[in-house]
Design a protein that fits this description.
The chain is built from 1 helix and 20 strands. With 306 residues, it is mainly β. It folds into 2 domains: 3-19 and 209-303; 35-206, Immunoglobulin-like, CATH 2.60.40.1190. A hairpin with a 2-residue loop joins strand 3 and strand 4 (60-67). The longest helix is centred in the middle third of the chain and has 5 residues, at 118-122. It is elongated. Residues 1-27 and 301-306 have low confidence and may be disordered. The chain binds calcium ion (2 copies). One calcium ion binds at residues 85, 87, 89, 92-93, 109, 111.
Length: 306
Amino acid sequence: MTVKNINIHLILVVSISALLLLSPALSSVSADRWILLATDGDDAPGPNIKALYYKVENGILYFKVLVYGEVTSIKNLPWVSIFLDVDCDPSTGHNIDGHWLVEGNTGVGAEYFITAGWLPYLFGDEAVMIRSVGTTEWDFSHPVSPDYFNVDYSNNFFVIGFKLSKFSGLKDRARVVVFSIAHPEYWDKSEVVWDWCPDSGNVLIKIGSVFLNVSGNSSGGLVFLTLNGNSGFLRIYVFTGPGTKLSYQYKLKVLSVTETGEWMYIDILINYDISGGDNWLPAKIVVDKMNGIVYMYGPINMIGYL
Ligand SMILES: [Ca+2]
Ligand SMILES: [Ca+2]
């Protein structure tokens, strides 16, 4: 076995799904690649929640909320509150079961709620984020302004986004539940009707993670590349003769992900010490999203078969 420094250039034809990690913020949000979290019936008076989407793009966590009915101004945009359990731990954050903030939606201990619509508008903000204090209170005296907020009155939805850096304690996934309340002019006999999405429980969002699972042929072998969350591995099989092969596995860590409409760039560290020690070196995975091709580049001290 010879060991030498080489550059590898693996071309793997694959199907890809990916969620994104931190990268420089942009001032606009793309119209595509929303991830549907939940849908809900037209089950409350006036404009009410129809669907909830999210995505992470350029370091910003965005939610898109579709509503039924006709939304023509901030006042008939229902009061929408998005609760985030950023550590997926119902024992931390606001978690009073039976309280109006979590009624019917156990399993969420919300560190934050994002709120938009007619009620915050009455208090001078169209949309803000509020942090919990302990498990019973909210810190209304320190509202956080969104990095993006836009109501599309033609298509009955709004989009709100906050930089990931504004969430303290955020891990690679969070639990979310949403409710809305219509403006009082839609109330019948002054009765407030709550509209939850989902109607019970909560939904899971994945943040700051890359999910990439590809396989393909390289010269003289098979290659499997798997990223799940912020770690993964590269596995290589080299066929040395009829029925014989060598296999190598390298651990990977994801450092950052940036992307354009056509390309995704994943900076990684790869552990080239196949004996189990630590020898982490930088490498890069480049995904051609339009053609479904994955390239991997790295100044690698590795087995010289590829
Ligand atoms: Ca609804
Ligand atoms: Ca929590």
